[in-house]
Automatic annotation (TrEMBL):
Its main location: cytoplasm. Residues 78-245 form the Tr-type G domain. The gene is infB. The chain holds residues 350 to 719 of 925 of the full protein. Signal peptide: none annotated. It is found in: Cytoplasm. The lineage of its organism: Bacteria, Bacillati, Bacillota, Bacilli, Bacillales. It comes from Paenibacillus protaetiae. Keywords: Cytoplasm, GTP-binding, Initiation factor, Nucleotide-binding, Protein biosynthesis. GTP binds at residues 87-94, 133-137, 187-190. Residues 81-229 are annotated as: G-domain. This is Translation initiation factor IF-2. Belongs to the TRAFAC class translation factor GTPase superfamily. Classic translation factor GTPase family. IF-2 subfamily.
Length: 370
């Protein structure tokens, strides 16, 4: 509009209003705190304080961490490992994910129609494994970029008829940077030209040395297409899980990560989330990213409606007011009012961080504020 009050200008400049008023008077402008002053005066004052003014925006600690109920050692129970599959294009990630999904269906749930909810669970030797079924690096990189650590174990797929390729190396580097254990699945061993030893040899250069050569990396030969070696791969995952002793407290408000979210024509905003701590229940108020809501319905990876979901369980939920983003943190709160307040605070914080945590306000910026 071209004007702003003396009080607002003082706030923007991080100065006392009385000091700004004094400056105005010295410039021959008589003003009170609530008085609207014109652009020229605003610029004069800004120039008096130097054309650039430092505006500090405090970066708050993460709300969810702070609000999460603390765990006692005795509350922690074993949970299924969460596994991601990475590797070079065409080495067989999608085929392997599909093959594993079909390997096994929990006894009672046999025949259930599998549904795409961003992740699925299989069971072997009465133990569950959760797979994130967005293959590729995007999901992993995106999640990590947003500070979400969802993966416990990474499977790196390398085609035995090909070799270590750029995206293979990238996958190794991602997994190492995240400190996540790696299992190498040497795929396509059904092919006559397959040469698993060549893959092992090549990967030693990246620090992945097979156990039989004195290293500590697990290599498993598989054929995703012919479904060879899949049980062995799953057993190796369970072995790594056992060694790492993954645990979570199922007995508290849920906290997790949004894996995917979209606006569904019929259902409205839906989010596919991985519960990582606690148990999510129908009716729970929650925050997902900057959105809030109340869990209206939950569907599992078999397309079944469920009432609650514990640690490492992927679920699709409805009951959001907006669509969150993949990688957004998720947490249940005591009530909807609290959830709404937290979501609003996060939205403001988000806008602030887009401006930069430590913004230098220039005359140009001042114009924008007016
Ligand atoms: P992605 O790009 O890593 O997801 O690879 P895909 O799963 O799409 O597989 C790429 C191609 O390799 C497809 O034509 C698959 O049918 C084929 N493929 C995948 N796994 C195997 C395997 O174990 N053996 C053979 N012979 N072909 C495979
Ligand atoms: Mg694929």
């Amino acid at each position: 509009r071209g004007t702003m009050t003396v009080g607002d200008l003082a706030k923007l400049l991080h100065k006392d209003a009385s000091e700004v008023i004094k400056k105005l008077i010295s410039l021959g402008i008589m003003a009170t705190i609530n008085q609207e002053i014109e652009m020229e005066a605003i610029l004069l004052i800004a120039a008096e304080y130097g054309s650039e003014v430092e505006v500090k925006i405090p970066v708050e600690e993460d709300d969810f961490e702070k609000d999460e109920e603390k765990d006692e050692e005795a509350d922690l129970l074993p949970r299924p490992p969460v596994v991601t599959i990475m590797g070079h294009v065409d080495h067989g990630k999608t085929t392997l994910l599909d093959a594993i999904r079909k390997t096994n269906v929990t006894g009672g749930e046999a025949g259930g129609i599998t549904q795409h909810i961003g992740a699925y669970q299989v069971e072997i030797n009465q133990k569950k494994i959760t797979f994130l079924d967005t293959p590729g690096h995007e999901a992993f990189t995106l999640m990590r970029a947003r500070g979400a650590q969802v993966t416990d174990i990474t499977i790196i797929v390398v085609a035995a008829d090909d070799g270590v390729m750029p995206q293979t190396v990238e996958a190794v580097n991602h997994a190492k940077a995240a400190g996540v254990p790696i299992i190498v699945a040497v795929n396509k061993i059904d092919k006559p030209e397959a040469n698993p030893d060549k893959i092992k040899q090549e990967l030693t250069e990246y620090g992945l040395v097979p156990e039989e050569w004195g290293g500590d990396t697990i290599f498993v030969n598989v054929s995703a297409k012919q479904r060879i070696g899949l049980e062995g791969l799953l057993e190796m995952i369970l072995l790594v899980a056992e060694v790492n002793d993954y645990k979570a407290n199922p007995d508290k408000r849920a906290r997790g990560t949004v894996i995917e979210a979209e606006l569904d024509k019929g259902k409205g905003p839906v989010a596919r989330i991985l519960v990582q701590h606690g148990t999510l229940k129908i009716g729970d108020a929650f925050v997902a990213g900057n959105c809030f809501g109340r869990v209206r319905a939950m569907v599992n990876d078999r397309g079944r409606r469920i009432k609650e979901a514990g640690p490492s369980t992927p679920v699709e939920i409805t009951g959001l007011t907006e669509v969150p983003q993949a990688g957004d943190p998720f947490m249940a709160f005591e009530d909807e009012r609290k959830a709404r307040a937290i979501a609003e605070r996060r939205a403001i914080k988000h806008r602030q961080s887009e401006l930069g945590a430590n913004t230098r306000v220039t005359l140009d910026d001042l114009y924008k504020h007016i």
